[in-house]
Amino acid sequence: MSDPVVRRATPDDADAVAALEAEALGRDAWSPGLVAAGVSGEVPTVTYLVAEVDGVLAGYAVGSVAGDLAELQRIAVGAGHRRRGLASVLLEALVDLARDGGADRLLLEVREDNHGAAAFYAARGFTEIDRRRRYYRDGATAVVLLREIA
């Protein structure tokens, strides 16, 4: 595997990002139309980043920056590319984007029962600041995490 290339998504990436979204998030996935609007820049403050490996779109991250606060809205890596550091590369690219946009904090929500993701974020400096009960469609709780990025 060659080193991943991380770049801003373009409208040409919409179908591949929507497919990864559906694969990774199932019934909580955003619609292809919403993904297309996001990658084309129609959603204010939102940026999609994609990671390519050997010319294949292998993962993506979605972030929003508004003033001093940024939010990681999505991050996903295709099944055939997991456990190779792509999520870390995407997360750090999003941190850089947020910092460059003036943010000094990055927030995200993770399912309470997603222990792997919780450990991933804890290892990268995120701490729990709140919980949102019944946040997901199936009634699961979201854990709100924060990382200082200044």
TrEMBL record:
Origin superkingdom: Bacteria
PROSITE patterns registered for this protein in UniProt: GNAT (PS51186)
Subcellular location: Cytoplasm
Keyword Cytoplasm annotated: yes
Pfam families per record: Acetyltransf_1 (PF00583)
Reaction catalysis annotation: N-terminal L-alanyl-[ribosomal protein bS18] + acetyl-CoA = N-terminal N(alpha)-acetyl-L-alanyl-[ribosomal protein bS18] + CoA + H(+)
Domain N-acetyltransferase: 4-150
SUPFAM superfamilies: Acyl-CoA N-acyltransferases (Nat)
EC number: 2.3.1.266
UniProt KW keywords: Acyltransferase, Cytoplasm, Transferase
Class in the EC hierarchy, top level: transferase
Function: Acetylates the N-terminal alanine of ribosomal protein bS18.
Record-stated family: Belongs to the acetyltransferase family. RimI subfamily.
Protein name: [Ribosomal protein bS18]-alanine N-acetyltransferase
Organism this protein belongs to: Nocardioides marinquilinus
